[in-house]
Fold this protein.
Amino acid sequence: MSSVHPKTTGPTIPILTTDAMRLERFREDVARLRASVDADLVYRPGQPAPVQIAGVQCYTGEQVVALYKPGPQHDCTSQEWYECRHKVREWVGLSLPASPSTTLRRIILTTAFVSSCMRDDVPLNAEAMLTPERVEQYVALYPRRSLRSLSTLRSELRSVGIAATTRAAWPRPPADYGGRNAAAPYSGATIAAYWDACLAQSTSHRRHVMATILSLGLGAGLRRAEMYELRTSHVVHHPVHEGLLVVVLPDRLVPLRHEVADMVLHLCDEQPTGRLIGGAGTGKSLTDPLGRMREALDVPASLPLLNLSRLRTTWAVACLSDGANLAEFQRMAGTKSGRVLEKFAGFISHRDTHDDWMLPASGTRSATGPMPGLPMDGGNA
């Protein structure tokens, strides 16, 4: 496989005689590329810090729920825990928050609440215990706590109550039917203005960062973490299609749109090793290292915010408008949800001139050949 930069090329690859052989070798090289990045160096945005329970590092809420046992400071005796442990784990498990630390706080508070209810002879049943009235009574009698602590206590028990009950009078969140629209694509004029702003950046580093964000957003629809972590060595030439650049991601391959191919080659020359966007270290000390880079850019106030979601939508609409079918688009976009496609559909222009859209739909201009199982001559089957 040919990398775009000579410093990232491997040993000379023998010339293969057929496209199929070249593609097979290409897939093997892609697998080696993906394995070449040290997992410890990859930034994972929002990756929560683990918590330790019984000497075990817990990286997920499920692990916390499975291993938790109340200590003497948690207001629950060993006998009470023995009686309620399965219910507590079940109820908290239905309302797992995003991080292990929040899960630990939630199960500690829920355990103490359930123990208190048991002492009042409340049946060990979610519909009987986890009601708004009992939670408010418990919060009102909770000793020696600040208003902030009481608010946290109420919020955690409320989350468990909503998740674990069906009849209790908790306010239910509205159902999500996926109605929120995707961020609108940028217009051609706005994109041109962004490139002008890129050239006007005060330092070469800022020009490189902004050009990388625009190129990878408009050219490959990369998400935030993918854009930050992409290595220069993971932008490669396709072995069969001349001039086609391919972005190698951990879960998929993305063909780079031709409009930005020359710019990406230039960026690879500027940053021959490491991350294409630049920057040293793992970025683990920062909540959003790419966001920090973007905030440092000088973008005119007359332009809309440089939004990664809108860059991705612009890329998606261009790909779908140019004829990528649904399966191909989902493969390169890294999405399986049909809702995503629905949200993009509203931005795709119809081919209304002389009803041109009817030709590919009828198979007259088919890239895959006629529909199987039908007579080819229009006569009797």
Remarks:
- The chain has two domains: 51-164, 183-345.
- The domain at 183-345 is CATH 1.10.443.10 (hpI Integrase; Chain A).
